[in-house]
Specification:
Length: 130
Amino acid sequence: MVDRPSPRYAGRLSRRAYALQPARSRALRVAIWATVCLLSAAAGGAVANAWYAQRAGVSNGSCAPTPVDAGGKQTELARTRLALAEESAARAAVQRSADSAAADVARLSAELQFLRGQSKGRVPAASPQR
């Protein structure tokens, strides 16, 4: 049969202050924590990179540019030149219209000044009262 400790001894055991002792050293625990953090950051970066690549429409493994045919380049260049010529023509038309409007404003301003000068010499007629 097993000998039980005396009640006096059992009372001392239950009133004693116990503290957990770490099984690993502090340096090892810090190293493990840092390694886990680095691995988590690397995994997060890889996931973010794959997500951005997916949103951009680029496959994960290919970073090489796709070859473009010379005919397509020439067609695009001709289209761009045509668009530039159209824009230049539109800007010239707008500039001519603005110049014409400025000339009309100058002519009308001169006429207004002349008419104001003519009306200062006259005595204004009495306007009817309402």
